[in-house]
Specification:
5-stranded mixed β-barrel
Length: about 230
C-alpha cells in the first residue's frame, strides 16, 4: 500500500509535467497523509494541475459520512472493482511525488523507510479521481493512488508499492484514450528496483502533524543522528 508520501520541489511541477503551476511558492510537503489536499494532474481537454483530497469519494456516494474513502486501488482488480472500473476509462490522473514511506516490522516495532528515485526529484504515481457533488451543489474532488506488487527494493519491507509511471507512460495514462488490459499491465508494472533508493528514517513520520525535512534524512546521517540526540 501507500499511506504516506512526500512532494518537494513544488516550484518545478510546471516544467516537469508541462502544465501551468498555480502552486508556485508553496512549501514542500514531507509527510502527505490521507485527507490532505494535494496537487493532481488530469488530462483530456482540461489537462492541468488541480488540488484534490487524498481518499476517493465515488461520485455515486449517497452518504459521505459513511464513505470508505480508499487511499489505494489494486492494479490487478481495477477493471472488476465497482468503485474503480468506470474511473479507469476516463478519470485517470497523475499524482506528483518525490518519495514515499513504508514500515518494516522488526520485532515489536515498525521502522519507517523512505523510498525515492535515483535521478529525479519528481515523478508520478498512477492515480484515479472522481468528483462528488454535495447536497448544496458544491463539488468535492478526490483521488486514490494505484498500487502494484513490490519490486526487489521493497520486497523485504512490504508486498505492495505505489505504481510509479515511467515518464514515457505519463502522457498516455492521462490521454483520455481507452487502454487495453495489456497496456495497463505494462504501465502499472513494478518500477525497476535498480532506479530506486531506500533507507530507514526517524519515527517522526508516524505523526501526520510532523512535516519537515528531518523526515527524509537517513537515520544514520549526521542530521538524523542529531535529531535522535535532541529527542
Amino acid at each position: 500500500m501507500c499511506g504516506r508520501y512526500s512532494l518537494v520541489c513544488i516550484d518545478d511541477l510546471g516544467n516537469r509535467f508541462r502544465v501551468f503551476n498555480p502552486m508556485m511558492g508553496a512549501r514542500s510537503r514531507f509527510n502527505v497523509a490521507p485527507g490532505n489536499e494535494m496537487p493532481v494532474i488530469v488530462g483530456g481537454d482540461t489537462r492541468g494541475l488541480t488540488l484534490m483530497q487524498w481518499g476517493l469519494v465515488p461520485g455515486f456516494t449517497c452518504d459521505i459520512s459513511s464513505a470508505r474513502r480508499p487511499i489505494n486501488a489494486r492494479a490487478e482488480t481495477l477493471r472488476e472493482n465497482p468503485v474503480f472500473r468506470h474511473l479507469v476509462r476516463d478519470r485517470r490522473c497523475l499524482v506528483p511525488a518525490s518519495g514515499f514511506y513504508e514500515w518494516k516490522k522488526e520485532g515489536n516495532r515498525k521502522v519507517p523507510f523512505y523510498f525515492h528515485l535515483h535521478d529525479t526529484p519528481l515523478f508520478a504515481f498512477a492515480g484515479l479521481y472522481d468528483r462528488w457533488t454535495c447536497p448544496d451543489g458544491a463539488a468535492l474532488s478526490t483521488y486514490t493512488i494505484i498500487t502494484c506488487k513490490s519490486n526487489a527494493c521493497l520486497a523485504g519491507i512490504h508486498d505492495r508499492m505505489p505504481a510509479i509511471l515511467s515518464p514515457g507512460h505519463e502522457k498516455h495514462w492521462i490521454s483520455g484514450e481507452s487502454l487495453t488490459a495489456e497496456e495497463m499491465e505494462r504501465m502499472l508494472a513494478p518500477f525497476p528496483a535498480e532506479h530506486m533508493t531506500a533507507y530507514p528514517v526517524l519515527p517522526l513520520v508516524n505523526s501526520p502533524s510532523t512535516d519537515d525535512e528531518r523526515l527524509v534524512q537517513p537515520l544514520n546521517s549526521s542530521a538524523g543522528k542529531q535529531t535522535v540526540l535532541e529527542e
